[in-house]
Amino acid sequence: MIKLIATDMDGTLLNEAGQLPDGFIDLLNRLLQKNICFVIASGRSYYDLKDFFKEATPYLDFICDNGAFVVSRHHQRQMSLLEKKAIDDILLQCESITHIKVILSGPNGMYATPCENEFEEILAHYFSNIQVVSNLQDIHDPIHRICICDLNHPLQNSYPILSNRFGSHFKVTLSGDIWLDITNLEVNKGNALSKIQSLLHINQDETMVFGDYYNDIEMLKVAKYSFVMANANEDMFSHGNYIAKSHNENGVCEAINEFIFKSKLK
Fold it and tell me: pLDDT digit string (tens) for 28-87?
């Protein structure tokens, strides 16, 4: 019996327009009536997720910032903070990389320097609470994630540089076509989900997970019912036990309905 469902947001639960599937709130209510815990696991910050889900927020658990910040109804908030010297070293390296924008994530908000026009619309779409500062090195808020928007595509541009320099001591993760995250080495969605499973005494056979991108791989590994979205890159399919319809075909909701409410569980 499924007791916990975790899903990525962009490219998974949301369609290409960034919208929740029709009937999601009704489906969530039906799951809650069955005492099934629903976890949103995203690269987005908690404050953006809270604003997005509005009145549904109190009924959800959140793995935010790709696992660096966990907000659960069942325990206190947990975060994995980066050391100040490491942040300064990474910021200094980023100054040499073209066409990127650095955003720092902390428990009290997100921080960026003034935006150039090419980044303004993108950041406004994904982040609702960015505080604009003159110098990121002057931030006094503790920081748990360094997020990089890379318009030259991180796989070819920022990832080789940052992974080579910092990859042995920090988690350097491709989290989207133009996104890269740097967190402490142990941080990922899978470790965060395992903590929630342990707290709720839920095992992998009772867990269903949905994802589409490389930052979802560890999370897919801790669930028997692991679904890779049909719209994922081809090299992602080996990381799941099932394939769900694409995010534009309500793949998450259809799989939940089929496996939980139509009893297709094995």
Answer: 999 999 999 999 999 998 988 999 999 999 999 999 999 999 998 877 789 999 999 999
Same domain, 70 and 199: yes
Q: Is 56 exposed, middle or buried (0-12, 13-18, 19+ CB in 10 A)?
A: middle
Say what the pTM is: 0.88
Q: Residue 214: which domain range?
A: 4-78+187-261
Sheet holding 61-64, edge to edge: 78-79, 69-71, 61-64, 37-41, 4-7, 207-211, 225-229, 242-244
Query: β-pairing, 130-132 with 37-41?
Result: unpaired
Beta strand extents in 33-178 (DSSP E only): 37-41, 61-64, 69-71, 78-79, 100-106, 109-112, 130-132, 145-150, 170-176
Q: At 178, which CATH number?
A: 3.30.1240.10
218 within a domain of the structure (yes/no): yes
